[in-house]
Structure formats: structure tokens, C-alpha cells
Please model this.
Amino acid sequence: MLHYPRWKIAMVAVIAILGIVFVFPNLLTREQADRLPHWLQPVSLGLDLQGGSYLLLEVDTAYVVREQLTSLVETVRTTLRKEKIKYSDLGAKGDHVNVRIIDAEDRAKARELLRKLDPDAALDARDDGAMVLKYSEQAVKARKMAAVDQSLEIVRRRIDELGTREPSIQRQGEDRIVVQLPGVKDPDRIKSLLGKTAKLTFHLLDDSTTSEEAGRGRVPPGSMLLPSAEKERGMPESYVVRKRVEVGGDMLTDSKATYQDGRPVVSFRFNAAGGKKFGDATRENAGKFLAIVLDEKVISAPRINEPILGGSGIISGNFTVQQAQDLSLLLRAGALPAPLQVLEERTVGPDLGADSIQAGTVASAVGLLMVAVFMVVIYGILGVLANVALVFNLILLMALLSALGATLTLPGIAGIVLTMGMAVDANVLIYERTREEQRRGRSILSAVQHGFDRAHATIFDANFTHMIAALLLYIFGTGPIRGFAVTLGIGIMTSQFTAVNITRLMVAIWIAVRRPKTLPL
Amino acid sequence: MNFYSRWVATKKPNYDFIRLRFFAFGLTALLIVGSFASIIVKGFNYGIDFAGGILIEAHTTGGEADLHHMRGTLEGLKLGEVSLQGFGNTGRDVMIRVQKQAGDEKAQMAALGKVKEALGAGYEYKRVEIVGPKVGEELKRDGVLAVALAVLAIAAYVWFRFEWQFGVGALIAIFHDVITTFGLFSISGLEFNLTSVAAILTIAGYSINETVVEYDRVRENLRKYKTMPLYDLLNLSVNETLARTILTVSTVSISVLALLVLGGEVLRGFSIAMMWGLIIGTFSSIYVSMPVLVYFNLRTGKETEEAETAEGGPAAAP
Model:
């Protein structure tokens, strides 16, 4: 008992010192801590403590699949038209595209053409000329995955553009994205920015009909009726627009909000391929109207006066400065492949966070003090030693939280307070055991030795089962509950260490120095 | 030597806990049945984590909050059930809960917009939480799964570490704690949310801590007193660990009390549940998980074998 191996003393000392080193940044102000290296930082506070917004978004993957089928329909249409093959019943239904080739002699040729359209779409041709194109399950899945990945990237770019401090954007599960924005008090602007797909496309107007005619349900195949974004300015309420996309917003390289004739407009620039496509489209269709479509709304439909060859252009609409800025931001960041929906939002103001920290700190301090007094009343000097271990436990717990980069939440503080109550349990077990052994007539040293050894197995079992609960809390918990699970789990580990090693060392030293005749138990 | 040590030294506890087992089992059965009945009949007062909906903590920037006026304004919005509750001691903090809106996630967001618009200026929003119906259902499912798995995993560990009889005892005890805590939430109408699930798992963890400490002693005593009747042995084990039980319950109570009084509004439900869990967990460890062992034959061949190796020599047959 008294002969403590040197390496053990050294280990305890090293761990204690490391604990103090890693706890130390928590005592600094934010500015001071920022100057420290990244591995030596104070514990990061959860959004419930520092204030901020948590958003859980879902990518509408069904939309992606629908989009893909719609575009396949258009490709089928243009292909068959080009080859002058007569068809009927072209359309997307459920998870496939169907079409019927009317003339029997065209069928073999059509089959060849459709088969080559998309390597991921399998063709099923029947004898009566009906053909079905269907994407394989893997292709659909890959497409959905890609859409979520892309959404994640776009969300990140949009939020970065806003200059939010330390945002965290993570994928969750198959089709979800978690966005955490510390310090953001009013998430409405962010929600509205994320709520826009920002899909920009350029289409030709269909001049074979009027929007009134189309409004009565007579939309020519290959065209669509889209609402206008600016009906209040005397513009038509809707436009008939060709479905075929002349140029897509994915070919944009840059976009800025500027002024033209004193009104805010959005200027954009295409990449080389986009610039060429745009140039070709405007040259071939001079005199016609080009609809600028954003999220299935026509922003404006100017007449093409001359070919636009420079690869850049301007969108003028009835924008406010803020709207022009937001639109250019959206275009710069790129379009979402599918709409996002906010499933969950939790916002905590910074004042409330500060109040929570205050309440948590006071509760911890009072709890710690009362437990400490209790231990001294019950165990006297040995209680004091247990309290030293308890304080070390708290230091190690905070140090580990800081070093691991774990997040401290309000329930996490509750976990700490609870851990302090539980932590002395190990010492209680040891001391009670020692008392029993002493009463059985063992010498002091032997009693202490047996007390520690016997209690050790019990402490381990108790802590291990407790750990299972903490682990499950972590796995199934979300947000703040995870924070609670982390502190609870780490608290169990540190109390296992401090109770067994630190108290034992201190008791050994105490006995060696004071050489008591009986233990005050 | 202080008063506690003197007390322990003079009064070696020797209570007959196991004799009270029928009373304890009856009480346990009553609590479990009562809890189930309340859960079935009354259900839970689900918070927005599970029910979905909107929670707003508003703080008035001018004078005290006029709850009556606010209630009138919000009820005029026809958003279904809206509840307002003042809290804190300045009279300026109001907790607003709006029930889940029919429709999808977008409907919830729209409702929040309406509430903010109707209240107008003069309010600061300290906390806004919106949980859509889809997430609410998932959180509920995950919560139930977490509790069920925790109970099973803990029992499995006890089985693995001790013997199957102990595993069964632990399972019954935790089951009892978990069900009655669910019952507490149901009967009291205390808001049931994610934090409550955390509280329940913590209670399960605490209770098993208690049970394991006692089982440890039973196992040790089984090796030590090979001929002692099981009834006496269990009683002895409880009595031997009684001092420790009281001390630990005291220290944990002190911590939880600090949380309850000083931890603030958000942790109130959690702290109340923990307080209850401390009582019920201690009760079940002593009066449920121990007496249950009377009905098992704990002295198996394996036990004797282990004892032999533990004592380092052949043991006399009991």
C-alpha cells in the first residue's frame, strides 16, 4: 500500500498536469483563447449556451427523380422528332418514361435510338410499339446521393457567402443536412436563402400560342405555362415557355448585383461553353423573346435584339437592392439540385445562453460545495482527500471535454453536476469497505489495502453498466442530449480514474506521513 | 471520530429487508399497473420534441407582458391549441406553445411567421423551436428504442458479469424504474420531451449502479458463507451495503437538489424526474432486485468451482 510504484506516481502526476494544462484555456477570455494553438482551446459551447440556430433540412430526393424523368421525356421527344419518327403517348409515369412508336417499320430504329439515349436507363420494347425506359435502382440511388452531396456543397457556399461565424454543415442520414449557426439570432433570412432552389434557365418563348389560350389548358406539347415574377408592373401574368433549356444556370461562373439606369440589376457571366451556347442561341433566335426563368417563375422575357457573344448578360427585374444581392448570391453559389425543406429549427438567443451558463455554473458550484461539506462531515480528513479527488475529477472532465473538442450543452452541465454526486460514490464504496475491514480486526494498512482492492471490482462493474446507458444516450440522442451523454460518459471514466488512483495515492501519502493509529472511520 | 462514525460503530444495521418482500412486490406491482393504466388512459403531455409544433420563449422589451392580451391575439390566428405561460420573476418572460399544424413542415414554418407577425414589435425571441411532424415521430421512435435497448443491454451485461439469475433481477428492477418514471410523467402531466428520455436513461443507469453494488456483495458473500441460507445471506448483503447506499443517495440528492433549485427553467423537468428516480431506484435495488434472488437457486456448481479458485483451495461442500 505504501510502496507505490514510481511509474504509477509519475503517471498520476502527468495526467494531473495535463488536466490542468487543458483546463486552463477555459479560464481565459475569448480573445485570449483565440491566440492559443488550435489543440489548446476552451470547451466549445453548444448552441443552447452560446446562442445560435440549428436547422435540420431535408433534400427532396423524389423531386430529383421526377426531374430526371422529365428531362428524359424531352430528350426522347427531340430525338424522335429529329428522325421524323411518329410517336404517341409520350410521358413520365411513376418511375419510368413510356412512349409508343406508331409505324411498325420505325420501331427497330427507335429501339436503337432510345437504347443509346442514357446508359443508365433500360429499355423495354413491346411488340405493339410501346416502349418503356426505366432507370435502374442503382442509377436512381446514385442520383439521389449525388443530389444530397451537391446540396450540401451549395448550402455550404450560400452560408459562407453570408459570412456567418464558424458554421457547421453536416450530412445526416440519407437525405438530411444539419446546419448549425452559432451567434445567428434570426434565422429567417438564412431559411429563405436556403429555401430557394435558385435554378436559373433560359428558354425561348413559345410564340405559336398566347398565354390566355394556354391558360385554358391548351398548352402545346413541349411547352409549359409559367407564372411571371413581376405581374404588378403591367407584365403578363404568365408566359408560355418552351420546355427545352437553351442555357442552364450551371454554366454560370460569376454573378454580381450592379446598377443599370439607376436600378439594381444582376449581372452574370458564363463559362466558355455556356458563353458559346448563349451566343449560338441568341444568334439563331434574334428577334424572338428569351425568358429568364428562376425557380419556375419568369423573371423577365426580353426580346433578343442582337447576338450576345461576350458570355455575359444582365437580368433586370423589379428588384430591391437586397433582392438583387440575394439573387446574385444564389446564382454565385449555384442551384440546389432539389428543394430543401426545414424539418426542425431550434434557435436560442445569446442572452438566454448566457443565463443558462450562469444558472449551470451556480448549480455546479453549489452542488460541489454541498457534496464537499457532506463528505467532510461524514469522513473527516478522509473526506477532504475524497474532495481533492472530486475537484481533480472535475478538472479532468473539463480538460477531456476541451481536448476532445466535445460540445458542452446545458444538459451537459446537468451531467457534470450529476457526475459529482455519483463520483464520490466510488470513494464512499472504498471507505465503507475499509471501515468494515478495520472492524474485522485488520491493521490500518491491511484494511485500507483490502478496502481499495475489494471496492475496485465493484466500482468497475457499476461504472461499466452506467457507461452502457451513457453510450446508448449518445447513439440515440440528438443535439443537447448527446452533449449530456458525452459529459456523463467522460465523467464516468474520469471518476473511475480519480477514485481509484488519486485517492489511493493521497491516502497512502497521508498514512505514510501521519502514521495514524486508527482510521477516523 | 465524528457522529456518523460513532453511529455506524454502535449500531450495526441488521434489518430484515427480505421479510418485507411481499409488501414490496405488491407495491411494485401496484406502481407498475398504475403507471401502465395512466399511460393508456391519460397518455403523456408530449413536448414539441415528440408532438411537433412550435415553442417560443418571448421577452417583452417594454413593461410586463400582458398575457391576457397576447392570448387573445394568438387565439385569433386559429392555429389550434395555443398555450401561454409566464415564468421567471420579472413578469416579462412568456413561454408560448403552439400545437402541431395540420399539413407538412412548411405549415409549421408559416405558423411561426404568423405568430411573430401577430405579436408585432416589442418582443425579443429568446428561444424558438419548431419540430415538424416527421421529425417528431422519429424522435419518439428513437427515444423508445434507446430506453428499450438500454434496459436490455444493461441486463445482458449483468447476466454476463454475474449469473443469469442476477440478470433477471436487474432486468425486473430497471424495468420497474423505467415504467414508473414513465408513469410519473403521465400522472403528473410533466412535459415529456427529449430531456425526459435522458432523465429516464440516467435513472436506469443510477439504479443499476445501486443494484450492481449490492449484487457484488451477494456474490462475494456466496463465496464467503457457503452454508448460510440464501434468505439470511441476502439480508446480510443489504445491511452491509446499507451505509454506502444512504451516503450515495445523499450526495446525489444534494447535486440533483442544486440542479432543481438553481438549474433554471429548461432543466426543471429533468431534475424532478431525477429526484423521483433516486427514490424509486434505491427502493427497487433494495426491495425488488434483492428479494427476487430468493426464488433462484444461486448456489450452482459453477459458483462452488469459482469459489475454490478464489479461495485457493478446495472448499467444503455446503
The first strand of chain B starts at residue 53 and ends at 60. Chain B touches chain A through 76 residues (CB under 8 Å).
